[in-house]
Amino acid sequence: MEFLRPVSLAEALEARAAHPDAVPIAGGTDVMVELNFDHRRPAALLDLARVPELFGHSTVDGRIRIAAATPYARIIDELGDRLPGLAMASRTVGSPQIRNRGSVGGNLGAASPAGDTHPALLAAGAEVEIASTRGIRRLPVEEFYLGVKRNALEPDELIIAVHLEPASGPQQFSKVGTRNAMVIAVCAFALALHPKHRRVGTGIGSAAPTPRHAPAAEEFVAGELPWDRPVPLADSLLRRFGELVAEAAAPIDDVRGSAGYRRHALSVLARRTLTWAWTEYSCV
């Protein structure tokens, strides 16, 4: 197996163009598992750990740009106040050692429906920045997921960053697993309130072939929330929101849980996260 080690983004893009069958690797949290279990044997690995342009964060046109290989630990420590939903999701990823290596870019590249950060990215309205030797393009994150472990990257492209608006309202993330840490999600849900635009963002994980929004739930709750009079929410509103989120999922039965359990759990997570977010909004 060839091991390619570029030391700049330009070198990485040239290597990607010259070796489109090479598998990009940064933290290795997904790729190394597949190699260790002999589920994948690529002709080459493209190591991105020495490319400085793929680490760090900045503000671009009012949005936060997170370079693709920035580890979860830095997102939690340095961006938790501005991107609380993504920070919550990042805290649920593996162990501290994995959070020191793994990244949002790797989570996107793997495109697993169970990836922990996908719901938070969807709820916040993230964009994915993609580059090749042909140029740079940006894609809304919901258009990036094409299927189970399939994404919108062309063979010569790399994910180089994600862009998100700083939170303008409360954000929440919740996940069901067989234990509290170091576990693949049975299902996950993220919610973001956008009071300025009276909009609600949602993200469902591990309950469909791809991470996805719950558009009917978003439209319903945005129209029903008493934005100007933050009083406690009626049980009927919370129940209907949970039902619409569950209806947006397309789960399967597998070793982690049945489709019926996932739908039920999602309705509970939706009600809880909306209650927590609205309580926070009401206290501001």
Short description:
The protein has 284 residues and is of the alpha+beta class. The protein has eleven helices and 13 strands. It has two domains: 54-164, Uridine Diphospho-n-acetylenolpyruvylglucosamine Reductase, domain 3 (2-Layer Sandwich); 171-283, 2-Layer Sandwich (Enolase-like, domain 1).
- Largest sheet at a glance? 5 strands, antiparallel
Radius of gyration: 19 Å
Based on secondary structure, the structural category is alpha+beta
The SSE string, one letter per element, is EHEHEEEHHHHHEEHEEEEEEHHH
Q: What is the rounded distance between the termini?
A: 55 Å
| Average pLDDT metric | 95
Number of strands: 13
Sequence of strands across the biggest β-sheet: 4-5-10-6-7
**How many helical elements?**
11
The CATH architecture of the largest domain can be given as 2-Layer Sandwich
